[in-house]
Amino acid sequence: MPKKDQGVSNNRFRIIPRTLIFVTRGNRLLLIRGHPQKRIWANLYNGIGGHIERGEDVLSAARRELKEEAGLEVTDLWLCGIVMIDAGEETGIGLFVFRGETDQESVDNSIEGTLEWIPFERLQEFPLVEDLPVLLQKALNAKRNDEIFFARYWYDENDQLRIAFSS
User: Which of 10, 93, 154, 166 pairs as cysteine with 150 (C-beta 3.0–4.6 A)?
Assistant: First the structure.
């Protein structure tokens, strides 16, 4: 099928593709605390990730983001979820959520923030990005070869984030 027949049109909902990666080491999760000067999620903890660049597939993008933001090369990554985020604009976000495990403890901080290995039982003590507590329940329970989860995020009339998982 030629490019012109792909159905790309300005009157359709579009997404910006991004990755979000949760890497564990034993009973600890690697999170990044956003740099205090970041425009979004400054001083909050999040998974590692970022934009998928033109010419990349989602797995290659996840591996690149891990290398850039943490100095990690985790070959054992798997897709565990896909989240569609509708922020009320013509363009939303398609978030590809990955899980991985590593034996490597040493990580490199980046301009994005400071990395920390956090024990699972202490996660509630940290200031997490708003959706992380709910998303982590799904992602940390994901095992290789499980069915992936699907979710939809949107904002209600009071600008409150709403999350729904498909079953």
Answer: 166
DSSP string, the chain: --GGGS---TTS-EEEEEEEEEEEETTEEEEEEEPTT-SSSTT-EE-EEEEPPTT--HHHHHHHHHHHHH------EEEEEEEEEE-SSSEEEEEEEEEEE-S------BTTEEEEEEEGGGGGGS-B-TTHHHHHHHHHH--TTSPPEEEEEEE-TTS-EEEEE--
Q: Which CATH superfamily is domain 12-165 in?
A: Nucleoside Triphosphate Pyrophosphohydrolase (3.90.79.10)
| Ranges 6-10, 21-25, 155-159: which has the least confidence | 6-10
Q: Tens digits of per-residue pLDDT, 97-133?
A: 999 999 999 998 888 899 999 999 999 999 999 999 9
What span, in angstroms and rounded, lies between the C-alpha atoms of 139 and 75?
18
**67: number of Cβ within 10 Å:** 15
Domain boundaries, the chain: 12-165
Give the residue carrying structure tokens 């205090």. 36
